[in-house]
Amino acid sequence: MTANYDSIAQQYKKSKELPFRLHIEAYTFFNLLGDLNGKSLLDLACGEGFYTRQFKQKGAARVVGVDNSDKMIELARQEEASQPQEIEYIVADVLELGEIGSFDLVVAAYLLNYAQTKEQLLKMCQSIFANLKPGGRFVTLNNNSEQPPASYPITEKYGFIKSVDEPLTEGTPIKYTFKVDGEKFSFDNYYLSQATYESALRSVGFKEVRWQKPIVSPDGVRQEGQEFWQDFLNYAPMVGIECVK
Ligand SMILES: C[S@@+](CC[C@H](N)C(=O)[O-])C[C@H]1O[C@@H](n2cnc3c(N)ncnc32)[C@H](O)[C@@H]1O
Questions:
Q1: Which of 65, 111, 149, 186 has its CA 20 to 30 A from that of 175?
Q2: Measured from the CA of 94, which atom of ligand 1 is nearest?
Q3: Model confidence over 135-161: pLDDT tens digits?
């Protein structure tokens, strides 16, 4: 299952320089995460460690990153070797992960949208829940299932576009195409309804499940103007989720 990131690892890393990544994605994510000081944190689908490194920089005491792409973890380990932060990186599939520890926080930027079925989603949610302390939080960013496909073209000005070949039903592939420095690359996510996400998260035992619309940073507004971001906010392509064990 899942997209194979081995072939697009470098390009994906480059896409993290797009302004929306900083001013909306990271801003929304860190707002949900709150104070990381002294916390233990498991970063699932950590990719090349873009956020993983920031968690450590923001004071997390212990950070473990997991991804099923050898290439992504290779890039993450290269960064760790050149600037050691004592981050541990593991190549593993979240579907098969089981319990590897007991963390204050489990995070996963763009993991759940790789589940193609309700069953796969449940397995991911079980792995997440199993690695959290009681009272611990799961914080994630995800494809926003609620964005109407008619509005997909509107995100082109932010550097990416989604497309579908058929009406959205459970498991429909959603193709993301990024354009960074004039170069295009694509990968697929999979549609599952918001109700399916909500029910999977609750059925593994999460007591609270909160949905967070994207928000834009004051710096982003200063640099690009509110008008530039308004379509992103109105037709949110992604969404944040916060769950409490
Ligand atoms: C869109 S990238 C996000 C990377 C990182 N979280 C970030 O925001 O920069 C999605 C990542 O999920 C990983 N992935 C997808 N399915 C996975 C699975 N079942 N287990 C572990 N990693 C997975 C991919 O290899 C890829 O690195």
A1: 65
A2: 20
A3: 999 999 999 999 999 999 999 999 999
